[in-house]
Amino acid sequence: MTAVDYTVIVVYLAGMLALGWWGMRRTTSTSDFLVAGRRLGPAMYSGTMAAIVLGGASTIGGVGLGYQYGLSGAWMVLTIGLGLLALSVFFSARIARLKVYTVSQMLDLRYGGSSGLISGIVMWAYTLMLAVTSTIAYATIFDVIFGLDRVVAIVLGGAIVICYSTLGGMWSITLTDMVQFVVKTVGVLLLLLPIAVVKAGGFAAMKSELPPSYFSPMGIGAQTVFTYVLIYSFGMLIGQDIWQRVFTARDDKVARVGGTAAGTYCLAYAVAGAVIGTAAKTLYPHLGAPDDAFATIVKDALPIGVKGLVLAAALSAVMSTSSGALIACATVANNDIWARLRGRPANASHDEVAGNRLFILVMGVTVVGISIALNNVVEALTVAYNVLVGGLLVPILGGLLWKRGTGAGALASVAVGGTTVIGLMLWKGVLASEPIYIGLLASLVAYVAVSLATKPTDAAVLDAWHRRLAGDPAPEPAPTPANA
């Protein structure tokens, strides 16, 4: 690292704080703070959507998987991109037309206010752990850049994200994510990818040095790919952090077209990470851990100035996911949990910028504290996605696709699926495949059985739901009973 590299990184970090201040000046209402006023056009929407889904796990972890498995290491990020494409093509237009702030508010609209609190708790746990995994990743990057102690690195990175997120909410996060998208594109796709391949001697040299399995599309294993689809592709369909970005779209066409562009970008990013990891394996065949591949190739293979930009790209990846998860966590905590416990309707229709800002600050400090206590990013991320998919996938997709689904069925699905996933993770281990397989099946059985055994959803509730899906101009969700 040289003075030029440090200057690039420090300027980047200062720019993030400046954009946070600028975003604060554009934030005058709850809608501005939580969903950027619902007025993003296709270019900004697609850039920020790509930024949030491609975080530290997709960048550092994606390169690490390429180092460990070769080109098939792209599958984790590929399934993220495929999930985003499915969301954008099949569901985003309807989601955008709902004009809600949270996934739980969508469930309230669909089922008549019967499942909001429990689904809010599950979603809060997911977004909290997602924010934690991104925050832990600061330790790796700041250690490479400044040689900082792990705790100091987490506090420094977390403080920057908390600062700009608290200042301007989604407007600040949108502005910073757009810069982060550009930095990631230049740093990873346009600089690190070609330089890594050239340093490794090209694909011919890589093939001669590495086993054939490194160039097999299924070298990582078919079961692993299937598990990635269940966890990440389906996780993209229902995560609050992703839906909250859909809510920022100016209209349903922007959500569909911009999201499709972002999903396509993710596919290219997946392949790039795997190729970089494969090149790193050729250059450094005996690294201590696969996740060291990104930092090692950046530190040893890149020229002055470029090294700083690529490390800034890694910071961009981590910060975009961290800030998106943080505002999602705070939004759910305030509007789906705290509002109901206080006994007021969870419709967020009144102006509560100060309250939402306070929740971001509190959740941010909580995330930093948990991140210091934990160390295993993969396990934390797996817990987050297992609980999310196992508990909420069936009632959310069921509500969108099956008219006969009921509120009681949704509650049973969340309770049975979530409990099964957690119990099996405790029994079989966090990284086992059984929790998500059996948990999803249990959730589906409970949803269908209880829905068929209970009265159909009230016709008035379904009528209001279908009007909203069709683009009813009502600006906010209907009030939810305080004891929902």
UniProtKB/TrEMBL annotation:
Its localization reads:
Membrane
Question: In the UniProt record, does the keyword Membrane occur?
Answer: yes
Q: Name any GO cellular component annotation.
A: plasma membrane
Entry membrane topology: Multi-pass membrane protein
Q: Which CDD domains match?
A: SLC5sbd_u3
Cited Gene3D superfamilies: Sodium/glucose cotransporter
- Record's Pfam families? SSF
Q: Which domain of life is it from?
A: Bacteria
Major location (coarse): membrane
Query: Which positions, given as ranges, span the membrane?
Result: 6-24, 45-67, 73-96, 117-139, 151-173, 185-206, 218-238, 259-280, 309-333, 354-374, 380-402, 409-430, 436-454
UniProt keyword RNA-binding, yes or no:
no
Q: Which family does it belong to?
A: Belongs to the sodium:solute symporter (SSF) (TC 2.A.21) family.
Name the PANTHER family for this protein: SODIUM-SOLUTE SYMPORTER-RELATED, SODIUM/PROLINE SYMPORTER-RELATED
Name of the molecule in the record: Sodium:solute symporter
Q: Which organism is it from?
A: Streptomyces botrytidirepellens
